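ugh ok fine here u go
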Amino acid sequence: MSRTRYTRYERAWHWLQALVILGLLGTGLELHAPERVGLLGFRRALDVHLVLGAVLLLNAALALFQFLVSGAIERYLPRPREVFTLSWLQARYYLRGIFAGEPHPIARGPLNPLQQVTYLAILNLLLPAQVLTGVAMWGLDRWPALIERLGGLGVLLPLHTLLAWFFAAFLVAHVYLTTTGETPLANLRSMLGGDEGGAAP
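structure:
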């Protein structure tokens, strides 16, 4: 009998976030270099970018509510006393151990401590900073004095772009790390089907 690894809600949330982030990166690239990327046109790319940003924020807020109410949030919280030790073991495994055929250092739950720390940082630091810089640029004409105190477009735009590159780097690393399960497609099957064997629960 297979064990459920990800609920239907977690899988739907994950894939919606993935599609939205890809859409934000694509439209953001067009906004940053409209002369090189002309898929939608600047105005339409901006409209789509704003809508996708709102969807990302709403989906994140709904997920936080669901995880808090259901108690599933505990799966995403590292244990403070061992987080640094276990995260180091996990990082060492990804950087060296996996290539030497060493066994996985941690066999506990759907998320290892390094993943827990990474998701906490993304959801509590990277995502809010990205949203705030995006909202600030959107409000450039609405709150000029506030935006000027924040450094103006000369600060907000490079920071927003840098954060987008962090998201892009995370996606690349995330896709690669999905191949480090028992088989290269085992983790993908779990995120598609929900259980350890990939079948729907």
